[in-house]
Input
Amino acid sequence: MYYSALKEKLQNKTGKVGVIGLGYVGLPLTMEMVKGGFQVYGIDLDIRKVNTLLNRKSYIQDVPSSVVKEAVSLGKFRPTSDYSVIQELDMISICVPTPLSENQDPDTSFIRSVVSEIKKYMKKGTLIVLESTTYPGTTEELIEVELEAEGLTVGSDYFLCFSPERVDPGNRNFNTYNTPKVIGGTTEACIELGVLVYSHVVKTVVPVSSPKVAEMSKLLENTFRSVNIAFVNELAMMCDKMGIDVWEVIRAASTKPFGFMPFHPGPGIGGHCIPLDPMYLSWKAKEFRFYSKFIELAQSINDNMPDYVLNKAAQVLNMYAKSIRNSKVLILGMAYKPDVDDLRESPGLEVYELFKESGARVDYYDPYATSFRDAEGQIVQSVKYDPAVFARYDCMVFITNHRSFSYHELADLGVPIIDTRNAFAEIQSENIYKLGTGIKKTEVKVPVSV
Output
């Protein structure tokens, strides 16, 4: 009974849809659902976000304010912080954060909180889709079991799926619409309804046999990247010792048309996915008395890259007869990836703290991420772009390769630059020191006293 009624609503787009969590994942998904022809309710407990959206403005770089304005003005999108609207919804997508605790264990408190609200207000015949990245089994353990305790049977009284988010902030080629959407349902009826609703929203839907397969697929994607980034980071440190340019090595290997996929070293890993997802998988595996050496090793290598950057800077400053303590250091770029303002898990934050702990007078410049809160809870503001001021720093540490940076102008300042991204690859300058290349003995810059 509920299945047929919901299927008809989803087919003719008369069903009301809700997205819980209006962040980097939820807001872009909401706008695609509006474009797909649904009336969408956006639920978020952050009143500032809700008010911004009600004022027809966006706070997500990938979602233009003009798109939000049109959706709200036409009544197709209704932002709210009131969970009671769930009683009007036919489909609910959960897009809340899933961070790690201080002990590196999964923190599913946001999901649990949402489920408690769903239990209060959900009507029978609702489709629930969890999109928050988490460990295999979460959909069944945290949602199905809880609703079963309320006397609800999945596949008949309500419908349940997992569909992992694949948002890549700032990606100019792939977005929510044209990135294939994996979805796994708890029963055949669940997967059929899940595929039906998302087929109106995204270009390609990829159904799999169960929520666990869908959950594991997301963890595989990002663990694959974590392990390979860790390997190339280790290779960079090896090349540094050997005096070999790791970037040239990668370019050479990339000419092979098969059997090789290039990954690049850097100051660490950032974003919500790669630093966290492998640890979710590792944590869940231990429940089965399985210990993943690859995941743990990769995490250790990647976590230590900010320390490697600090040591590289110390080595460079030493060549100029300076130490990190009392040196003026400018970090260039603080966002975790180019051309976005996203600071989540950015390695630049750790690099900043390490320099500060070592006694440096450290500032940063980022045209997108203009402020952050440091380890002591103090707000740190980006300095203004001023080449004349930048020329007075003892060294600059390049963390994020934003396209808007004036690379030639920065190189011409004569300040030593520790380049962690090979951003200055096309610029020949004696004052640029790349991560993973080593420093030649002939490059000693100690001034000769007269």
About this structure: DSSP finds 15 helices and 15 strands in the chain. The domain at 2-209 is CATH 3.40.50.720 (Rossmann fold).
